[in-house]
Structure formats: C-alpha cells, structure tokens
Amino acid sequence: MLHRLKTDFRLSIITLLGASAILGITPFAAMRFMQGNTLAGSVDTAILVGILITLIYAWASGDTRRSGLVLAVIACSGAVTVGAVVGEPGLFWLYPCLVTTFFLANPRIAVFLNVASVVVLMIHGGAFRSDVQMWSFASTAFVVSACAYVFAHRNHDQRERLEHLATIDPLTGIKNRRSMDQELDLAAANAERTGLPYALVLLDIDHFKRINDEHGHGVGDDVLTDLVALLKQNTRKSDQLFRYGGEEFVLLLPGVDGIGLKAVMNNLQQVLRKYMKHPGGAVTASFGVALLRHGEGVDSWLARADAALYEAKETGRDRIVFADLHEAPEPAADAV
109, 301, 108: which is closest to 191 by C-alpha? Predict the structure, then answer.
C-alpha cells in the first residue's frame, strides 16, 4: 500500500484529497442532519458516497486518470450545490476544489470545471449578499485558479524531469535497470493474461575492459553508444532495450519464439559483427536468450538468460546460447 502511494503520484493525490474531504465533510453532514437541514445533509452525504466510491475504484483498478477526473467533477459540482443550498457559508468549500482540480485532471478540463463552477454560482446568485460580493468572489476564484495552475504545471514538469533522471541511462539514452524491472513485471503479467510469448536477451560486449584499458574510456563510451544505435535500428518499435549495467544490456522481445527468435538473434549477431568497430578492430558480443515459461517469475527468467550468457562467454564469446533450446550458432571465422 505504501509502495503504491510512493510510486504513483496521482493515486497519492487522489487518496490524500479524498481522505481529507471525507474527514472534513462528515462532521458537517452529521451537524446538518441534527439541525434538521435534511437537504444540505443529503447533499453532503451524496458527495461523501461519490468520493468513497471513486477512492475504492482508483485503488482497485489503478485507473487514476479517470478516477481523478471523476473526483474533480464530484468536488466542483458538490461545492456548487452546497453553495446554492447553504448560501454564503457554502462558498468557502469551492476554494479547495479550485486548487485540487489541476492535480486531478488535465489543465483544460480543470480550467473548464473551475470557470463553470464560478459561473453557475454567479448565475444562481443566491449565495451572494450583493453584486460587489459576487464579483469579489469571482476575482479571488480567478486568482486562486491561476496560482493553482502555475503550481501544478511546475510540479508536473519537475516530476517528469525527476522520472526521466531516475529511469533513463544518461550515456546511452535508453532505459535503465529500474525501468527494466518494471517492464519485465508488466511483460510477465501480460504473458499470463494473453499467452503472448516473450523472449529475454542478455548481451555483453566481449573484452570491453580491454577496450577501455587500451584505448581509453572515451572510446569505450563510443562503443556503448554505437551498440545501442545499431540495436535500435535493427529491432522493432515494440522491442525494448535496457542498460543492465556496465557493458551488459537487456533486450525484451514480445511475440517471438522458436524459429523466429533464432532468426532475430542471428541477424543481430551478424549486424554487430559487420558494423561494430573500434580503433583496435572489430567488436563482438555474447548473447544469452531465454523464453518466458508459463507461470515463471521474472527472477527465474532473468537468471536463466544470465546463465545462458555466462555459458556463451565461457565457451568462446561471440556466441548465442538459448537457455531453452541449448543451442548456440558457431561464431564466424573472422570473429574476434
């Protein structure tokens, strides 16, 4: 539970705002029923029920985008209704709604909800003692909405930058190991649900330490970026490439198995043999390949691919070892 709140920003906002609204509105709903104001108490109760259902749906489905939109609509429409029924004291409930809409829905929808809420209250007019009060309320509502928009926009930009830094390898520009763990979990879940085959490829640049030692880390970095460029050019858009660490990379291939997988791997090996170069000569790589088994966990899947890679390096490098098929094509005669 805490992990989901830490990793899902929108869910944490929905939970925080929903819980705050429930705690804040419940006493007023009870008080209004006790005072005999059944209409206002019923409105508060309806708002509470809507918020509670939205919270449960968000947690159960993980659909925080739709849940956030529904919660924003409930909050704004509820605040407008309370203002129309209760009068001037109910106006204050709209201010927190004007702020939170920008964290629950996209900016255009949030702007529409805020403007519509204020306009409806102004047209109704029953909550205001005078035109001066009405226009003062409209002005302050506009200022609050503008400030909330700016803050939410800046927050969104900074969050995206942090997520980019946390999930992208700065040298190669591809996803890092943290992203890989998430994507492999999703792949395993999707395979169980749909039966789609998935292949996992671990590849390691042969003698990479020697390249760094003899030609410098700058050349080593060039080799890494060249490798990534070649792999991206020779794989599908649906395939995903990750930097596992150092000179090791992981390639996730959905929808391939058997003969098709052999053809893909042989093609990648030939492309690297042909185009990967450095000042000392050709650059090759070793490959460990594992197909996801039915009901298999990610750790086991990754371990089998890693064991296949280890076998490829131990038996001469520049080889492909299939964990499931126990086959490895022979290296080319001119391979290094």
Answer: 301
Tokens 């992203």 correspond to what residue?
179
What is the average pLDDT value for the chain, to the nearest integer? 88
The model's pTM is: 0.59
Question: Which residues on adjacent β-strands are paired with residue 242?
Answer: 175, 250
Count of other CB atoms within 10 angstroms of residue 62: 12
Q: What pLDDT score does 1 carry?
A: 66
Contacts of 222 (CB under 8 A, 6+ apart): 278
| Other residues' Cβ atoms within 10 Å of the Cβ of residue 179 | 18
Segments of the chain scoring below 50 in pLDDT: 326-336
Residue 8 DSSP SS3:
coil
Question: Is residue 67 within 8 Å of 14, Cβ to Cβ?
Answer: yes
For the question of residue 183 being annotated catalytic, the response is no
Question: What is the SS3 assignment for 325?
Answer: coil
Q: How far apart are CA 205 and CA 223, in angstroms?
A: 9
Task: Let me know if 11 is exposed, middle or buried by CB neighbors in 10 A (0-12, 13-18, 19+).
Answer: buried
Rounded Cα distance, 203 and 318, in Å: 10
- pLDDT tens per residue across span 112-129: 999 999 999 999 888 888
CA 63/CA 10 separation, integer angstroms: 10
- Residue 181 main-chain phi, psi, to 5 deg: -60, -40
Catalytic residue of the set 247, 296, 327, 330: 247
The Cα 190–Cα 197 span in angstroms is 9
Spatial separation of the C-alpha atoms in residues 13 and 61, rounded to whole Å: 16
pLDDT of residue 21: 85
Q: Is 296 helix (H, G, I), strand (E, B) or coil?
A: coil
The answer to whether 309 and 204 are in contact (CB under 8 A) is yes
Burial class (CB in 10 A: 0-12, 13-18, 19+), 74: buried
Q: Do residues 292 and 197 lie in contact, with contact meaning Cβ atoms separated by under 8 Å?
A: yes
For the chain, which domains are there?
Answer: 2-167 (no CATH), 177-322 (3.30.70.270)
10 Cβ neighbours under 8 A, 6+ residues apart = 64, 65, 68, 103, 104
CB atoms within 10 A of CB 293: 13
